[in-house]
Write a structure and sequence with these properties.
This protein is of the alpha/beta class. The chain folds into two domains: 27 residues, no CATH class; 227 residues, 3-Layer(aba) Sandwich (Rossmann fold). The protein contains eleven helices and twelve strands. The strands form three sheets. The protein has an eight-stranded mixed sheet. Strands 4-7 form a two-stranded parallel ribbon. A two-stranded antiparallel ribbon has the order 5-6. Helix 5 links the parallel strand 2 and strand 3. It is globular, with a radius of gyration of 19 Å. The N and C termini lie far apart (47 Å). About 2% of the residues have low confidence.
Length: 258
């Protein structure tokens, strides 16, 4: 058995095929990406992602965006060097649009704190998860950095838009998936969503880093129209009139509110 595993590892094409087959037979239903793919892998859809980072590292929408050629994706990332990585990872397909900006309440420029590109050059084997902790809140970055990279935290004045300005600028008139990963600012972004105009089938946002009152406000904001399921540090929110009964049963143990 060990020799077969070693053979598979030694031939990338076979290894990738085996991995794909295994994921098809035994999908990870504890991954948010599974549920995004389940509802939209073959359906035309518009996706907006706030806080895209490099678009690939541990990202729940990357696989769906690449495989579903009927999808249109708007990717938003404020850190310049990470933004360049994002564009490189997605490529030049016209289905993908990019916005190098932050999202805040009034659209004015704001200081953004992030780990400098230099940190990855100077610190051997620094995990690239550290380029995912940028935030408008310096204390949030310091907390997540755990003292390992304090000397490499930079301040950047970034261009900002409100969520409505972002939608207008990029001609977003319909929305199927909204993903917010804003490192402690998720509620400040999500609270701008006009639920009378936009009712995406799925909203995914990170609740880790939110104050308890913000977390409660986010739940109250969505609970009338959405089922909220807790996935470790994220809420996967599926519109009540779009969820499949079988899926509701499967996700029952993760249900936050009725």
């Amino acid at each position: 058995m060990a020799s077969i595993k070693n053979l598979i590892k030694g031939i990338p094409l076979i290894g990738n095929l085996a991995k794909t087959i295994n994921q098809t037979i035994n999908p990870n239903k504890n991954a948010c990406s599974y549920w995004l793919n389940r509802y939209f892998i073959n359906e035309p859809c518009t996706i907006v992602q706030i806080g895209s980072n490099d678009g690939k590292s541990g990202d729940p929408i990357y696989d769906l965006a690449q495989k579903n050629t009927k999808s249109k994706v708007l990717l938003v990332e404020p850190v310049p060097y990470v933004f360049e990585q994002l564009k490189k990872n997605y490529g030049s397909n016209s289905r993908f649009k990019f916005e190098n900006a932050g999202i805040n309440a009034d659209g004015s420029n704001q200081t953004f704190y992030s780990v400098s590109e230099e940190a990855f050059e100077k610190i051997p084997n620094l995990p690239h998860i550290y380029n995912q902790i940028g935030s408008f809140d310096k204390n949030h970055v310091l907390k997540l950095s755990e003292g390992k990279i304090d000397n490499y935290i930079t301040e950047t004045e970034v261009n900002c838009l409100t969520l409505n300005q972002l939608f207008q600028k990029n001609e977003i008139s319909d929305l199927d998936i909204l993903h917010v990963d804003a490192e402690g600012y998720d509620w400040k972004v999500l609270s701008q969503l006009d639920l009378k105009k936009f009712k995406p089938t799925i909203i995914l946002f990170e609740f880790f880093g939110l104050k308890e009152e913000e977390k409660s406000a986010a739940i109250d904001f969505l609970k009338e129209d959405y089922y909220l399921f807790a996935f470790r540090i994220d809420f996967l929110c599926i519109k009540k009139d779009k969820i499949r009964e079988k899926d509701l049963k499967t996700l029952g143990s993760k249900l936050k509110v009725q």
